[in-house]
Amino acid sequence: MIAPKDIVLASKVSLLTYCHKHDLPIISSMGAGCKSDPTRIFIGDISSSTEDPLSRSTRRRLRALGVASGIPVVYSTEKPGPGKAQLLPLPEEEFQKGKVGEDAQGLKLGLSVYDVGYLVEEVYRGKSVLSGITTRLALVRWRKPEAGSTIKVDVEGQKNSIVRLGDLVCMTKEEANVHEREVVKGDKTPEQFYDEEIVELVESRLREEKSFEKYR
């Protein structure tokens, strides 16, 4: 069963895509739920809207259809905080995407190319979380996974790699190679290998991604 919210978002994305590709003028409203500060309302291109879960989710789906910018939107930069109302998350099963085909063989990764784009562009702002460099980027596990926790077998002959968005961080390829050697495959924890400022920055980005999970 598809969640009503997912149907609404799919319809919104379909309409925006059609108007964009046919040069029809349109302006779209983004997330306003639980927002109360009118000074935080802005109008701008969807590619520049920030701190808005609906914008993120809409951008992610539009990007999958080949639309990265060119749609004006109304959005709020107001952040949730203590004492403010919050939207209740839907059940976890509503967010499970895709099915494993009965004839699939080999190893499948649980993330799509659009998930990768979302992580790099939205969560890590298109740069390495370690150095701020914007080129030669890669995603790598932040922590060493527990033994036996990375592979599951759903269908005979089909192995599925278990990796979640919240497991990954963005670094340059060179930094990722060092991190993988010392942390993912080595015997160090991030706290032992990096200074406190870097660890807190990464953890804050992972918490941020987690807070937006219910909107994807």
TrEMBL record:
GO terms for molecular function: tRNA threonylcarbamoyladenosine dehydratase; ubiquitin-like modifier activating enzyme activity. Gene3D superfamilies: NAD(P)-binding Rossmann-like Domain (3.40.50.720). It comes from Glarea lozoyensis (strain ATCC 74030 / MF5533). GO terms for cellular component: mitochondrial outer membrane. It comes from the Eukaryota. GO terms for biological process: cyclic threonylcarbamoyladenosine biosynthetic process. PANTHER family: TRNA THREONYLCARBAMOYLADENOSINE DEHYDRATASE (PTHR43267), TRNA THREONYLCARBAMOYLADENOSINE DEHYDRATASE 1-RELATED (PTHR43267:SF2). This is Uncharacterized protein. PROSITE patterns: PROKAR_LIPOPROTEIN.
